[in-house]
């Protein structure tokens, strides 16, 4: 009997280890499978001022707002959807304009190394205040509650919109590795869309985990020859489209993102991507799978034990009672 239980325990252990080993060794591989790839479908191509060294780009109430950089050339602009510059304000000659966002009817404009963010009234484009910060300023967006800022590293800082203090620092990873040089940002629901300096892709970042959950191949938008990097991503929530341009690009594009091949991601995102609720990313629930395996193993063991005992009983029953000892072995027993 003891030997039988030892055998059962040995078989059970081997089964459990065999079932769990893929999960114990490759949890990172599970993350790899959750990045969905998108390509761009162009809806409209419009002119863009090729003198604009684009550093920040956003859509608000039917217009685009743009921050441009370079010393002596930095501006804040209001642009219509045909690319005409409706209004433009020059920044001080010694600052380098960077990311731009809108929050509570103010525009917040970063500067690269001056440690100051300008606060503009969006109606009058007049300066109404500023924030100070100890960092380089690259990109910024507002999720409606807080501001999200990049500084050229793989970290995003989530900031209080009232005093610009850092609430949280989020490390952004792509396939488990830090994703540095995050640049222009766009907050869309609980996701942040970021372009990375010198890359032709836009990365979709889950703001809870910091994981990149999608990549958008934007190489088809680059002018030939390309005057500069892609550095403008603006989301129009009204029709779920994006406006994209780059530094000194002669064009800007109204686009949507289409999933390239759902077989690559293993997840059906339902096609177009924009708002956070239709990106379709779902992390594998390894806890549930682990529980399922344990239960499977338990029931397998239970079944084996019951079957084993039954077989044992049957064997014992045959040996003792079938045929009855009284008829078979009566003589020998005596
Ligand atoms: Ca933006």
Describe the structure.
- The protein is of the alpha+beta class and 334 residues long.
- It has two domains: 2-12 and 287-333, no CATH class; 34-282, Neuraminidase (6 Propeller).
- The protein has helices at 2-25, 27-32, 262-265, 286-321, 325-328, 330-333, and strands at residues 36-47, 54-60, 63-68, 75-79, 85-90, 97-103, 106-111, 116-121, 127-132, 140-142, 147-150, 155-159, 166-171, 173-174, 177-178, 182-188, 191-196, 201-206, 212-217, 230-236, 241-246, 251-259.
- The strands form five sheets. Strands 16-17-18-19-1-22-21-20 form an eight-stranded mixed β-sheet. A four-stranded antiparallel β-sheet has the order 2-3-4-5, with no helix packed on it.
- A hairpin with a 4-residue loop joins strand 20 and strand 21 (241-246).
- It starts with a helix and ends with a helix.
- The model is unreliable at 20-31, 265-271, 274-288 and 310-334 (pLDDT under 50).
- Calcium ion (CA) binds next to strand 2, strand 16 and strand 20.
CATH fold field value of the largest domain: Neuraminidase
Q: Specify the biggest β-sheet.
A: 8 strands, mixed
- Please identify the top-level CATH class of the largest domain: Mainly Beta
Low-pLDDT windows of residues: 20-31, 265-271, 274-288, 310-334
What is the fourth-level CATH superfamily of the largest domain?
Answer: TolB, C-terminal domain
Number of domains: 2
SSE pattern, N- to C-terminal: HHEEEEEEEEEEEEEEEEEEEEEEHHHH
Structural class given helices, strands, pairing?
A: alpha+beta
